[in-house]
Design goal:
The protein has 363 residues and is of the alpha/beta class. The protein has two domains: 14-257, TIM Barrel; 266-362, Sulfite Reductase Hemoprotein, domain 1 (2-Layer Sandwich). The protein has helices at 40-53, 65-68, 71-75, 90-98, 114-127, 142-148, 153-169, 184-195, 213-229, 247-257, 280-290, 309-313, 344-362, and strands at 14-16, 19-21, 28-32, 57-62, 82-86, 103-106, 131-136, 175-180, 204-205, 235-236, 266-269, 299-303, 318-323, 326-331, 334-340. Strands 8-7-6-5-4-3-10-9 form an eight-stranded parallel beta sheet. The chain has a five-stranded mixed beta sheet with strand order 11-12-13-14-15. Helix 4 (90-98) packs parallel to helix 5.
Length: 363
């Protein structure tokens, strides 16, 4: 199927540990631990669970001196690049740099003013360490709040540009930028306005305080989906309440749905309707289970309507359309063969496995 994905915004590359953000590199999925960072064992264990879930960078909260001084011990034992999340106390950022983390997240609205911000930037520059300038609607500078009466997308962009200019004055360009809000419209508007500037720093996308896993996933998809389709974004975090490992599949599904990063089959199925004459829900569940470990970036259609199914199946890389006890297997819009209903899933999975083996042989 012909791609209609828009161009991707041009951004410079920022290397975080062994992961590169920006440029033409894949959009990076990251998360944040919920453990007490002072508890090294618990934090290491959670970082490892995140790595197993597919997370590519882990951020930890630095709430006091003890947490800041635990960073080296954590970083030495985990597979993921470690990001220190700093609020309120600029000295914690200085300690994080000394501890040798892979990246420091700074909130310019609460770091303590320009003098302290510049000191952190100089230390980052001298250490050759990347950072994120994390502008947040909840901690926007007071002069911007007083000017507009409340947080706005214009305020978020202006705050970011102020601090980016400071970084440039200090000859520091090794950083990512975020402009987050719990408001989806404000978030979208801020990122689009920033993307329209001539600044080429990579962008970290996220909607803050998205909510419980169910609503938070929907809210994050609403906030991030349009931006990704527009070609905006170099790394994302889906912020959900509870176990951070739940964030990872949601993030990858948003990337898959927007066509920005597909690392597993996308299974497309009919909605329920009165024309369906097979147990489509059962068949889809079986296909999902059997393809659970596949890394093949293909669109798989599983359709239960003999009226529209064949036409819709042609839009997928491979698929089945079934009804009245039999089905048809399609590849790239061409019918391969006709099957009994009880043969369809085996045949579909077999074809996908063969496609995966062929791809591995050429890579």
């Amino acid at each position: 199927m012909k791609s209609e994905i828009a161009f991707r915004r041009t951004s410079r590359e920022v290397k975080v540990g062994d992961v590169t953000i920006g440029g033409t590199h894949p959009i990076v999925v990251q998360s944040m631990t919920i453990t007490d960072t002072r508890d090294v064992e618990a934090t290491v264990a959670e970082c490892e669970r995140l790595a197993d879930a597919g997370c590519e960078m882990a951020r930890v909260a630095v709430v006091d001196d003890a947490a800041a001084n635990s960073l080296r011990a954590i970083n030495e034992r985990i597979r993921l690049p470690l990001i220190a999340d700093i609020h309120f106390n600029f000295k914690h950022a200085l300690t994080a740099i000394e501890q040798g983390v892979d990246k420091v997240r700074i909130n310019p609205g609460n770091i303590g003013g320009e003098k302290k911000f510049r000191e952190v930037i100089r230390r980052l520059r001298d250490a050759g360490m990347p950072s994120r300038i994390g502008v947040n609607a909840g901690s926007l500078e007071m002069d911007l709040i007083e000017r507009d009466g409340f947080p706005t997308s214009d305020g978020l962009v202006e705050s970011a540009m102020r601090h980016i200019e400071t970084c440039y004055e200090e000859d520091y360009r090794d950083f990512v930028v975020s402009l987050k809000s719990s408001s989806v419209p404000m978030t979208i508007n801020a990122y689009r306005k920033f993307a329209a500037t001539d600044c080429d720093q990579p962008l970290h996308l996220g909607v803050t305080e998205a909510g419980d896993p169910q609503y938070g996933a929907i809210k994050s998809a609403a906030g991030l989906g349009g931006l990704l389709v527009d070609g905006i974004g170099d790394t994302i975090r889906v912020s959900l309440l509870g176990d951070p490992c739940l964030e990872i599949p949601v993030a990858f599904d948003i990337l898959k749905a927007t066509g920005r990063r597909v690392i597993s089959p996308e299974i497309v199925a009919c909605p329920s309707c009165g024309r369906i004459e097979i147990d489509l829900e059962k068949i889809v569940d079986e296909v999902k289970e059997r393809l659970g470990r596949s890394k093949l970036p293909v669109i798989v259609s599983v359709l239960g309507c003999i009226v529209n199914g064949p036409g819709e199946a042609r839009e997928a890389d491979i698929g089945i359309a079934a009804g009245r006890g039999y089905g048809m297997l399609f590849k790239k819009g061409v019918m391969v063969r006709k099957l009994e209903e009880n043969e369809m899933v085996d045949a579909l999975v077999h074809e996908i496995e063969q496609m995966e083996k062929a791809l591995e042989a050429t890579s």
